[in-house]
Give the backbone structure.
Amino acid sequence: MEIKKRDGSLEAFMPEKVVVSIVKSGAPYEEARSIAESLSKRSESTMESSMLRDHIHSELKSRGFTSAVEEWNKYEQSKRSSTS
């Protein structure tokens, strides 16, 4: 699967990047690995980065890690503010 980034470029899906991002947001490694594996099993050849993020957030929430989603969102907002 490839990920279509916001700038339109394509990048190969790398489960390790998903795991690192999820762990950095505060979720346990085992949960991060499980979510990355679920993404690896999807049948799409291309996925928008926003859809990838939405899937990860949905999985985290359904597994009881709402605080990890909040931390992820805080990081994204601070990243946007620093590039403005």
In short: The chain has a mean pLDDT of 91.
